[in-house]
Amino acid sequence: MKRVLVVLALLTCGALFVPAARAATVPHRLASIRTHRSAALLPAPLAVASATTYPIGGTVKDFSGQPLAGWGVDWGWFDPSGATWSFTDTVYHYGASATTATDGTFSFPAVTSDPLHDYLTAYGDTFVLEQWGLDFSTTSDYVLQPGHVAVTLTNAPASQVFGLKLGDAAGTLAESQPRLTAGSGTADAAAPDFNSAVAFTSSWYGALTAEAEWDNPGHPTVAVTPGQLAGTAVPIDWSTAVHGHLTGALCQHAARPGGTVRFAVSNLPAGEQMSFYGFSWWPADWGVQTYPAATITSKGSAKTYVVSLRIPARATVGDMYEIDATRTDDPQSLLDLYDLTQICTFGASRSSIARGGVVRLTGRTDTGPYSTVTLFARHSRAGVPSSAAAKGWAKVATLRLDSKGRFHSARLHPRRTTWYVARFSDSDSGFTVFTPVVRVAVH
Fold first, then answer.
1. Is residue 312 part of a domain?
2. In a domain, 109, yes or no
3. Which CATH number fits the domain that encloses residue 102?
């Protein structure tokens, strides 16, 4: 599904977000998932029906019609096997990127076309505007300019920052961060129409864990004209927001390839269905992992559902694995929640030693040279620490990482059974995380 990564300065378990280049986002900048999963993050483009190429171009404008310089524009296409752009239904193929000139114009001299599946997106500091269902072979000039729609958001914290997504799962999507005053404001919308909307909040480390949908029975469309205010307002009640996140403290968001994590969904209205999928941010050449057995159908909003999801053994060590919970009973729904876990390794050269024996601990994280991990130990069974302070654990050593994120301890001589864990800071998201716990039995 589409989403934005609105970075908020919220302090939880780690430091301030430090964006990586491959994350394609900066504080308070909006970035679409199609941009986020750029050429390096998406499957390699497949051959389309025709090898013929076409020149296309256009202009990116703001609501008032002023050209937007320095904005990004992507083109690509959707695999026609899916009925909508939902990531669980179809595959998006990245083509190329461009940056708008001082007059807001952009151009691509040679695009291929998969008619009625072609796609354009414009993204910058204030909104993301996406259109698909296009045909580059017959239309060469495009104007990417939003319309506006009045939005009211009730039962929401006055201090909270919200984003809005408005779209039609068969053709358009706009994402923006409206300036809500007393619960009301205007959001960007993409022409020619939309029929679904969600308000959302994003964590400072890039997760999206709460969304409230616009109650729009039957999904009648609302016409959108660039540079004009739509005639239909969108009321959203934040008390209906669905929440979804990995369980446990943020510091526990790490797993081995092949490990298991737990994802909780709450306040899902009765009868609505959520399905799960996941992928590594880099690279994604092994594709998307779906979890059909984990699909839940709510029996009421008072219940919290927790599912166990296995990280694929092929997940990329040293990078983020993203887990999405997306609504699948309504093909027009924009509801899509996701959280992040760091993929790492940590193990002992031997799991059992005789008294006086030797063991070494090794692992790998995502951080580069001159970074460190902190090794901790204890002599009673425990899970991953619930805070960065690692209370109840004793520091053993500070270990330096090599250029591939690998680390290893000196030769250790535990005198009795010992549990070990390593703490590090993830360079993509900035939060502090622990490796899984390793037990070394001494007999």
1. no
2. yes
3. 2.60.40.1120
**Chunked in runs of 10, what are the mean pLDDT values of the chain (443 residues)?**
26 27 27 32 44 95 98 88 59 90 98 92 95 94 98 91 91 91 92 96 91 96 97 96 96 95 98 93 75 96 97 91 94 94 96 95 81 95 95 96 92 96 82 94 95
d(CA 214, CA 132): 22
Number of domains, the chain: 2
Which pair of tokens denotes residue 337?
């929640």
Q: For residue 246, tell me if it sits in a domain.
A: no
267, containing H or E segment: none
Beta-carbon contacts of 293 under 8 Å, excluding residues fewer than 6 positions away, are none
**Residue 403, SS3 per DSSP:** coil
Cβ neighbours for 279, distance < 8 A, ≥ 6 positions apart? 287, 288, 289, 321, 322
Q: Provide the domain limits for residue 138.
A: 21-144
Instruction: Write the DSSP assignment of 181-237 as a string of letters.
Output: BTTEEEEEE-SSEE-EEEEEEE-TTS-EEEEEE---TT---EE--TTSB-SS-EEEE
Q: Which of 144, 160, 176 is the last residue of a domain?
A: 144
**H or E stretch including 34?**
helix 33-36
DSSP 344-400: -EEEES-SEE-TT--B-EEEE-S--TT-EEEEEEESS---S-SSTT-TT-EEEEEEE
**For residue 398, is it within any domain?**
yes
Minimal CA–CA distance to 426: which of 11, 29, 16, 28?
A: 16
Burial of 386 (C-beta count, 10 Å sphere; 0-12/13-18/19+): middle
Q: What angle do CA 316, 128, 265 make, to 5 degrees?
A: 55
pLDDT of residue 250: 93
| pTM for the structure as a whole | 0.86
Strands of 1-53 (E only): list them: none
pLDDT of residue 87: 56
Burial (CB < 10 A; 0-12, 13-18, 19+), residue 305, is middle
| Domain end call among 144, 178, 212 | 144
